[in-house]
């Protein structure tokens, strides 16, 4: 039996795959509707595989990263009691021991 990947990696992989699929669907829609003559340009090319592969890579990376980033930023944060809003530098300073002892540095 193969070990399962950690939950966070699986979460990132699933969201990246969803984003890549969404990007490819958007590209297919742009080509099918011939937006800005994109379908005509690719279809009339002597080698249509190269521009199609380049566009698929760019759309996949862009949409994949966007969906993955959105998923990460949408994750619930654990409540630890400290945040940027209630940051107190005096309270968060490392302890030096007793107050009457000089700094050992």
Structural features:
mainly alpha; single chain; elongated; 105 residues; 58% helix
Provide an overview of this structure.
The chain has helices at 7-32, 38-43, 49-73, 89-92. It has 105 residues and is mostly helical. Helix 1 packs across helix 3 (49-73). The model has no long low-confidence stretch (mean pLDDT 85).
Brief summary:
This protein is mainly α and 105 residues long.
Distance between the termini: 54 Å
Helix content: 55-70%
Low-confidence stretches: none
Elements, N to C (H/E): HHHH
Give the DSSP E fraction (strand runs of 2 or more residues): under 5%
Rg, rounded, reads 25 Å
Task: Tell me the overall shape.
Answer: elongated
Number of helical runs? 4
The number of E-state strands comes to 0
Average pLDDT level? 85
Major pleated sheet: none
Please state the structural category: mainly alpha
SSE blueprint and pairings:
Blueprint (H helix, E strand, L loop, with lengths): L6 H26 L5 H6 L5 H25 L15 H4 L13
């Amino acid at each position: 039996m193969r070990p399962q990947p950690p939950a966070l990696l699986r979460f990132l992989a699933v969201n990246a795959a969803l984003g890549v699929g969404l990007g490819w669907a958007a590209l297919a829609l742009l080509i099918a509707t011939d937006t800005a003559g994109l379908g005509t340009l690719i279809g009339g090319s002597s080698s249509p595989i190269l521009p199609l592969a380049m566009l698929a890579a760019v759309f996949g990376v862009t949409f994949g990263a966007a969906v993955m980033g959105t998923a990460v930023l949408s994750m619930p944060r654990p409540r630890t009691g400290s945040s940027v809003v209630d940051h107190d530098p005096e309270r968060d300073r490392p302890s030096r021991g007793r107050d009457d002892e000089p700094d050992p540095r």
